[in-house]
């Protein structure tokens, strides 16, 4: 099974964003070219005091889950299997809407090998309360259980949203 440090950079950025809702992330220039770190940057011009500048926008949380499809000693999760997961697990939890995008994850294993893994990115806008958070955690746990995954990456970022 692939090492699930696959989106460590995104995860560190996400943690910084969640802990300081009015900041963004930008890559710093590392002194060691093999090391990348994320530093929060002031993004207060677009989200002053956790409020959106444009009246038609609402401050929401953009939550993302990244579901890897490779499995140890088994074929990858198929499109049909993933669609069944969408129909039976995601849609009932988020009937108001979500987006799913095919992505290709890449990470370096402990022994230095570069691995690539086809993945699915779920994007859900929510109010940041406990209810959607619990639903997202339930999805992560269910996917890991159903498809023998070591992890499912989650990020949460504040966004000004207008529909």
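Sequence proposed for the structure above (163 residues):
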């Amino acid at each position: 099974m692939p090492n699930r440090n696959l989106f460590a950079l995104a995860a560190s950025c996400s943690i910084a964003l969640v802990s300081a809702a009015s900041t963004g992330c930008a890559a710093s220039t590392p002194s060691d070219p093999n090391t990348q770190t994320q530093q929060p940057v002031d993004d207060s011009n677009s989200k002053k005091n956790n409020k959106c500048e444009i009246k038609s926008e609402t401050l929401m949380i953009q939550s993302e889950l990244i579901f890897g499809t490779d499995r140890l000693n088994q074929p990858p999760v198929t499109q049909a299997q993933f669609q069944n997961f969408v129909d039976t697990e995601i849609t009932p939890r988020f009937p108001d809407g979500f987006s799913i995008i095919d992505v290709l994850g890449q990470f370096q294993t402990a022994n230095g090998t570069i691995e690539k893994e086809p993945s699915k990115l779920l994007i859900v806008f929510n109010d940041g309360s406990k209810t959607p958070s619990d639903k997202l955690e339930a999805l992560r746990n269910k996917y890991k259980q159903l498809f023998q995954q070591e992890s499912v990456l989650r990020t949460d970022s504040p966004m000004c949203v207008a529909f």
